[in-house]
Amino acid sequence: MVMICALCAWGGIYPFGPESFLTEDLKYQYIDFFTWYRKVLTGEANIFYSFAQGLGSNTWGLYSYYLASPFNLIILLFDEDSLTLAIFIIVALKLASMNVTATWFLKRRFGLTDTWSIILALCYTWSTWSVTNLRNPLWLDALIILPLAAWACWRLIRRGSFIPLAVLIAIDVICCWYMAYITLVFLCLFVLFELAVYLFDGNEVDRRWVLGRAWRFTGAVFLGLGLAAWTFVPTILAMLGGTGSKGISPFVTYPTSLIRGFLPCAWNLNRVPQFYTSIIPLALALAALGSRRIPRKTRALLFCFAGLLAAASVFGHLEFIWCGMRVPNGFYSRTAFLLGFLEIWAAGLYLSRRTSPDPRAQSGAHYEPTRRRHAAKRRLSQPWIHLAIGALALVDLTLNAHACMKQLYVGYPQDAHEAYIAESSEQITRLKEIDPSPFWRLDKTYNRMGAAFNEGISLGFCQLSTYSSANSPHAVALLNSVGYSSEGEFSSVYAAPNLFMDSILGVRYASTWGTPAGYVPMDVEPSQNGATFSRNPYALSFGLPSAASAGELAAPLAGGNPFERMNDLARRLTGEDVQLFTELEANVNRSDSDHLAWEVSVPAGAIGYAYVLKGPDAGSYQPVQLTIDQQVIAQEGWRFGNNVRELNAPVENESSIHRVAIDPAEGAEGVPAGTDCIFYALDMDVFDTLVTALRGTQFEPSSFEDGWVAGTYRTDQPATLLLSMPYDRGWTIVIDGQPTELLPALDEGMSAIQVDEGEHRIEMSYRSPGLTVGCTISALSLFALIACAMRSISAKRS
């Protein structure tokens, strides 16, 4: 804890300097999620569901992935304005806990002295992996648990006790199921490794003994999962439906980067694996590989095990397996901490064999310590050696940590963060005063910094943008298919207003530069960046009647581009062949690998839109520069910016001509092959007629809260209501006191309910699926754990 304070003071990092402690995903995601979680803990938000992200999402996955650590309860001691300080304290406490558990493990497993245990534990705690993942505090709990779980595996081999391992696996899954998966895969290998070390030390066992240990380990795994089922089962059901990133690269690093991973101060963001723990455990681990005091088979196995763990940061298919059968999106070398732990283990083994009796003596064989062994023990126990090595470790770890932190904590002052949050809070408060109605959505075409697209969940408003590993994948797919962001991505970003879809989805307010086409300006204080607020007079409510049958409505939107899909949606709503969008002819001014240009004429009474089509081989990180009438959009056609872009605002009474160009993005050699641009016009007369018809028969809830929607709906004929929320089996729908089935719509990106003629009271409530089943499994597992513990105690007494 002293070290993190010293490093932040040296680097000018909050709370000891101006640079925010919120870096990368801490500022993009976690700070918003922590703010929401504090509202959950104080009873202001629903832990099961939130409408704030995308079109709505089961938030149990959000909680169990990002927020389930018991350390996070500390945020209750802080107000919302001080959550950055709370996160800093949480991270500091986790580092301290890592140091404690690693020290305890080294003493128990290898019988090392206090000094050597603390030195090696400090190297484990302040490894390059730990330093570079302070930005992912949810992952740090696994490093606290790993030494304890490794000790439990060793204890299981020696004594047959499986209860500690089961409890630790349960805690790991509860704290963060993702890192628990990585840890559990490692433990399955590690327990075999410890078993082999036990046998190579000369211990003789029979097949029955080995099978018994295998059975106990398997039982510990299933018992641990059972104890955590109360959260794990709802999490599994909440996360179903996502596809993850596609395409597994054969190699994810280069040989030079791999070598640099073992060197101090050599880490490079997203390029170099974080293998480095310190020169001391590295030297001791290498000495262990060459030590004759360690059996040759043990050394060979140690080398192979280390090679396998290193390979997970080199070969894409191994990385895919280790990371939960998904290609990780960002944060390269997520498993490097395992190799670091094995390095610490090897260092501990070497020291124990240098200073302790030979394992043959412990197993009962005749053995006499040599003078050299006594001399080695005396040398390694000298206070001056401890002092010198401890000082070397502190200097080494501090310099390495500072070199890493200089790459991460730059360009985001804490004052700027706090100023933005204060300004946004005031704006949301003002909008809620202007419009107290239960349901409306708001979105912005800007954010705090970079990929911070989760503002709604922290400030308490509904937005379309969402950037999380725990959102609704079907809702994201729907939003992106109609032009809100790149298709195939796990996030969706409101980078530009889209009048038709904004209206259908209830986006009543937008904040951007200028007034979007079809919107009207508002008297709300502009942002410091010059963005103003506008109101969408066409915005509809939560439920819209559809002329399509439930079966027709369930199918994905048809069409090869966002405009055709929006036309298909209009046809399903009206039952008529509505041509909201018509394709515009564009004159090509120039077309080559360095520059594409068009001249487009938009007819009177219409809004023209452009949409960049990416080439078949263009990836998510190959943007282009799009220019519309000299307005430059620097990054278009990439993961957070592949949007329907308007050509004209306001709507003109006569035709207008617009010039559009695509150029290489900054730093790119050319425009990706196959890049093109399509142009469509929204007929405002047709659009106005459609909105007017839908508004007369829409469902306007009188109560709209996270996990609860209620209101009265009247219809003159049986209707299928299209609800702007993703389909989720956790919803219970009651109409006039009678349960009603929730139906999937638009490939589960939205939902539907069927309502008979007349006036009806509709009530909707949500509970995360699997919670009851998970709690039942956990209760049974707890009973089994208690029974096993009592049996073990009884056996010891007898």
UniProtKB/TrEMBL annotation:
Ranges that cross the membrane: 84-106, 138-157, 169-200, 220-240, 275-291, 300-318, 330-351, 380-399, 770-790
Pfam families associated with the record: YfhO
Keyword Transmembrane helix assigned: yes
InterPro entries: Uncharacterised_YfhO
Alphabetically ordered keywords of this record: Membrane, Transmembrane, Transmembrane helix
Name assigned to this protein: YfhO family protein
